[in-house]
């Protein structure tokens, strides 16, 4: 019985040593408020920037007129029916810097769905309430059924 207690105590100490520094280092994730806007409503600089990244699958942040925008591109698709929607943006603080995690939801056409045979470039633009650009932005993707 004592062996079990000692083993449990050692296990708790090991788990604590692994997870406590991660909890202390991360000051907490915060949801970032944002508003989805049409590409045509975005500032001219954003509209000029988007074509450079349309062929890539990525998230990027841009500062225009002291406002921070997040753009998520899905890359080139050979048919219509593909879309991208930004579900949530999380700000992850660490020391003096911060990162963003953009949670996007991708929708693909169904296999039996009739779609136009045209090359498309799904993209979404959002205006955030952030005051400065993140050091890094990460894209997390989930596919819609």
UniProtKB/TrEMBL annotation:
<feature type="domain" description="PrcB C-terminal">
    <location>
        <begin position="68"/>
        <end position="129"/>
    </location>
</feature>
<protein>
    <recommendedName>
        <fullName>PrcB C-terminal domain-containing protein</fullName>
    </recommendedName>
</protein>
<keyword id="KW-0472">Membrane</keyword>
<feature type="transmembrane region" description="Helical">
    <location>
        <begin position="6"/>
        <end position="24"/>
    </location>
</feature>
<dbReference type="InterPro" id="IPR025748">
    <property type="entry name" value="PrcB_C_dom"/>
</dbReference>
<keyword id="KW-1133">Transmembrane helix</keyword>
<keyword id="KW-0812">Transmembrane</keyword>
<dbReference type="Pfam" id="PF14343">
    <property type="entry name" value="PrcB_C"/>
</dbReference>
């Amino acid at each position: 019985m004592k062996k079990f207690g000692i083993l449990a105590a050692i296990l708790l100490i090991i788990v604590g040593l692994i997870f406590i520094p991660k909890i202390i280092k991360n000051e907490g994730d915060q949801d970032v408020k944002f508003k989805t806007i049409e590409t045509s409503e975005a500032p001219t600089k954003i509209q000029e920037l988007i074509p450079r990244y349309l062929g890539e699958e990525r998230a990027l942040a841009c500062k225009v007129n002291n406002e921070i925008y997040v753009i998520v591109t899905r890359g080139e698709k050979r048919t219509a029916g593909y879309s991208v929607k930004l579900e949530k943006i999380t700000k992850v603080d660490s020391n003096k810097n911060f990162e963003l995690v953009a949670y996007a939801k991708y929708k693909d056409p169904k296999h039996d769905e009739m779609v136009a045979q045209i090359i498309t470039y799904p993209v979404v633009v959002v205006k955030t309430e952030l005051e400065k650009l993140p050091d890094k932005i990460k894209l997390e993707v989930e596919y819609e059924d």
